[in-house]
């Protein structure tokens, strides 16, 4: 019995050594897979654009198969196959933007394919479908498969923005930087909670470097008691939190504009921002509180007159107007036509989308009324070249970020606004006529 003990001991000692290589190999493989998956996940979250480019080919191949499989069912559900299934002629482009060319059956109109867009979007689970004609017979469906705009990102202050004609505000659906032209008077419309503050502060952050240098003066008007503007008051040369102060500030800017107009007459046709002659940017949070909801009719009338003057005459001499509001109806903002650049955040219905961006934008894919509540700051804009509406998102500015930027880029120029002048054009109520008959009888 004792002679077998060495052999048993050798066997007992040798078995773990025989098993260990496979166990170590399995553990190493699992650990390697975990590291690779984690690295890929981090890459996708932190660098979505480069990750998308690297994986574009396999994703494109998979999504093309999905489109071909889903198209017959969508066409049948929308009644497009009554006289035969419309032919899918080609699927071009790379993920996440693909172009599906369809040959309609005779008698069909492009409006029918516009109506089928949401069904195709739901069937594929994609972000957006936009329809446009090609030539005289074909229809092109532009598919935006991935939605990089769903991930929020922080707004950042820019000290290196030298060209003030175009401001970086966020991202586009194509993964590019969203640049907003500064010069056209801009109207930002969106329902409550749609992210107007994100656009408001992204513009202020983009101008922060020029504000600190003195090339730009910001004028903030916030009739909600200053909840928005006063958070970063150091950035603004003037602030107004009540109707009277707001009207006084606007009328003072009209005076400055007229003085500059006289100085430029016959000498200069366009303004270039400088420390001697800065660009004045008026930023209003909730414009309707000043132009429609005010109970003081005189202040309302004077505010509308000042806004009309600044918007119609101020661009060439360096006065730019940026206004946010919830209700885009004409009776709420009579001077809506003077705002040549509009940003449509989440709105109530298609009619409001047409009010803000125009009928043509609504028919080329702008769907502000379909923006969900969980993506504040997401909007549609119409490019300057008049092309199809572009889906964009502005960065999010937290309270701490606003305070930090306001302290770092505080303006050194503060303007003294004269008190509100009495408008002599408003007739005061006359005193009742005195009864002279009673006086004569008394005498």
Structural features, described:
The chain has 443 residues and is α/β, with parallel strands linked by helices. The chain has 13 helices and 14 strands. The strands form two sheets. The chain has a ten-stranded mixed sheet. A four-stranded antiparallel sheet has the order 1-2-4-3, covered by helices on one side. The radius of gyration is 31 Å and the shape is globular. Residues 424-437 have a biased composition (Basic and acidic residues). This is FtsK/SpoIIIE domain-containing protein. Residues 150-354 form the FtsK domain.
How do the helices and strands line up, and which of them pair or pack?
Elements: H1 5-46, H2 48-54, H3 56-77, E1 87-92, E2 97-103, H4 110-124, E3 128-134, E4 138-144, E5 166-172, E6 177-181, E7 186-189, H5 196-206, H6 208-213, E8 216-222, E9 236-240, H7 243-264, E10 279-285, H8 288-291, H9 297-313, E11 319-325, E12 341-344, H10 350-357, H11 359-363, E13 378-381, E14 390-394, H12 399-408, H13 436-442
Parallel strand pairs: 7-11, 7-12, 8-9, 8-10, 10-11
Antiparallel strand pairs: 1-2, 2-4, 3-4, 5-6, 5-14, 12-13, 13-14
User: What is the strand tally?
Assistant: 14
Helix share of residues?
25-40%
Taking Cα atoms only, what radius of gyration do you get, to the nearest Å? Answer: 31 Å
Distance between the termini: 153 Å
Domain FtsK: 150-354
Region (Disordered): 422-443
Biased composition (Basic and acidic residues): 424-437
Keywords: ATP-binding, Nucleotide-binding
